[in-house]
Amino acid sequence: QVQLVESGGGLVQPGGSLRLSCIGSGLIFSLNDMGWYRQAPGKEREWVALMNSLGTRNYANSVRGRFTISRDNAKNTVYLQMNSLKPEDTAVYYCNGFPAHLYNDWGQGTQVTVSS
Q: Which residues of 28-66 are buried (b: 16+ CB within 10 A; e: fewer)?
């Protein structure tokens, strides 16, 4: 069974930064394509960032240039550095394998709120 624990969210002013972490068991991050996702109130979950097993990164257009995904293989942890945050980045953020529809087990997510 896959267990994922996201952390690092919080309340931040527009233009601020946060670093999210996701530690997992039952899924070896370095051997899988890993993604960060988010879900805002009343909206569908959307993909935000991807790091494949080779280390190649890709980002949704809405966050490209502001967010950076990284991975610590020894800790089986994936990170999302978020800079220049905007109110529209407010959402619950999740990590999981990519693509999302292949995975049934999700963590509780971490809330990110961008507001002045």
A: ebeebbbbbbbeeeeeebebbbbbeeeeeeebeeebeee
